[in-house]
Amino acid sequence: MAAPPTPSQAEGLSATDEKRHRFYACELIQEAGILLQLPQVVLATAQSLLHRFYARQSLFDFDAFRAAMGCIFLASKAEEQPRRVKDVVQVFFRMRNRRMGLGLSLLMPSDPRFATWTDWLVMVERQVLIEVGFSIDGTTEHPHKFLLYYIKLLECSDACAQQAWNYVNDSFRLDLCLRYDAHVIACAAISLAARVLQHVLPLGWEELLEVDVPDVISVAREMLALYEHPRVRWLEPLTEVNPFEVTRHDKVEAPTNLPPVEHPAVPPQPPPPAVIARTPLVNRMQAPSYDDPIIVPVEALAETEIAVAAIDAVGAEHDETSAGTTTTDATVAGVEAKSSDTTHVVEVRRN
């Protein structure tokens, strides 16, 4: 039996485009969570709230960017990790400018736009609370707690555990949390990680964990399909009025605007043995040894705490294009970062 159309689909938006906007909003939540130094459980709750919100509201009425801002603000309070309104506003304002190719100046409280962005945040937070019935109990049970128990029960390797943890984190970009129980998603992540790493699971482990094999297979397939979607840098809102239209203030901040660029999604690679934790993208990539540098694209590195600190230290923002040839170095928190305009990569070396 086919699922009923969502409010966005009822207004003419295709399922593919709706998934694209939701994926984009979840990417914003993940990036903002890193900049706000929030634990992964807050980001999982925020993305669950986002999917519940768009199950009842349309993207034509509430754009993905502001919905992401309201959801992460509400989730931080729900998980007892609150962040100040001005901090959330500053982070999303900077993300908007960077993704649109505008300036990176701060949004001062004296700026009229600061009051506007604050009103957006409060308005969306209130609307999300209304749509979820002022109850967030259903959004705080995540697959992570089941995953930790199952990993120990099945005696999985550290690499398999970390890979499954990465799959669970990425699964929140889809609305799986609305259609499947948390323990089913955890089992699907373990199954997928075991196949990728060729780790043999005990015979009949699905029955031991009381999950249906067809459900596990279905969730695992959706997780794999997730990495076929390109990563979107910026999506224009579908609302009747574009709240992010470039104004004269934005033009003063940055004379040159960069065009939106889409990046292909990269599936998580098998990591080396590590402690299960919220792992930045840079830690998921393989390196020959611990002492060898990890070289990753600037746009991927910019999503990690290390990248934010390193790039800010060298005093340059590297996006898709740059003029001239410069090489800069900086050491932040025991991490040496080297960036070059000619190669468009950042070399990170642990000291």
Automatic annotation (TrEMBL):
Residues 27-130, 145-225 form the Cyclin-like domain. SMART domains: CYCLIN. It comes from Aphanomyces astaci. CDD domains: CYCLIN_CCNL_rpt1 (cd20532), CYCLIN_CCNL_rpt2 (cd20533). It comes from the Eukaryota. The keyword Aminoacyl-tRNA synthetase does not apply. GO terms for molecular function: cyclin-dependent protein serine/threonine kinase regulator activity. Gene3D superfamilies: Cyclin-like. GO terms for biological process: regulation of transcription by RNA polymerase II. Keywords: Cyclin. This is Cyclin-like domain-containing protein. InterPro entries: Cyclin-like_dom, Cyclin-like_sf, Cyclin/Ssn8, Cyclin_N. Belongs to the cyclin family.
